[in-house]
Amino acid sequence: MSRTRKLDPVEIRVLGVLLEKEQATPDHYPLTTNAVLAGCNQKSNRDPVMELSETEVTEALDRLREDVLVWRSASARAERWEHRLDRRWELDARSKAIMTLLLLRGPQTPGELRSRSERLCSFDSVDQAEEILRELSGGFDALVCELPRRPGQREARWMHLESTEGDPREAEAAWQEPEPPAAAATPTTRPSQRAASDESAERIASLEDAVEELRSTVADLREQVRDLRSQLGLD
Q1: Rounded to two decimals, what is the model's pTM?
Q2: Which of 82, 127, 227, 234 could tie 30 with a disulfide, CB 3.0–4.6 Å?
Q3: Is 211 within a domain?
């Protein structure tokens, strides 16, 4: 893997969006600047949720282009952008899906990565997702690492290593789960109730994904209409 410089939060979000849309909505990829902006500011499947300006996104794209991490599409009538991470990070379909989710949603467990990757690439099992994570964490140029497991956690979380921000591994190591108040009663949730709740959450997430994809498509179509009107001299 060819490591790059550490990336700031806006650059990470931009790359995550380009990776995501390439896999989830290939018919609308490469992306216009407006489509990248809409993807960066999505409310669903993003952690943290961001409110970026067009200037912030444009400047991040220019910085990433200087490092050959993104590139302008020369064949498009409107300016479009695509990433160059497949070769730089040596990503196949499964490792690309995992890196996409980690860039967009922060640290996650192998189980979370598997369940959230359906729109990008399917995994046969949690073990398969963990196997890819192990591969990405190998060598001096590792792209991901495993975080210390919190008390009571069944699965450890994984994070990407491309951020300029502080190392979350240190915070995780110092984290201690707060003890519940002695007088507080712990409600009991039946397995069937948890399963129904999880299923509802997944359906809501799928609907939110569909809405955000429609918004991205509309932004793309608006860009094409503006370009066509300009060519016809109607503006």
Answers
A1: 0.73
A2: 82
A3: no
Using alpha carbons, select from 78, 41, 81, 40 the residue that is nearest to residue 61: 81
User: What's the total number of domains in the chain?
Assistant: 1
Question: Using one digit for the tens of pLDDT, what is the confidence trace for 64-77?
Answer: 999 999 999 876 57
| Domain containing residue 144: CATH number | 1.10.10.10
Per-residue model confidence as pLDDT tens digits over 87-122: 999 999 999 999 999 999 999 999 999 999 999 999
Q: Is residue 39 part of a domain?
A: yes
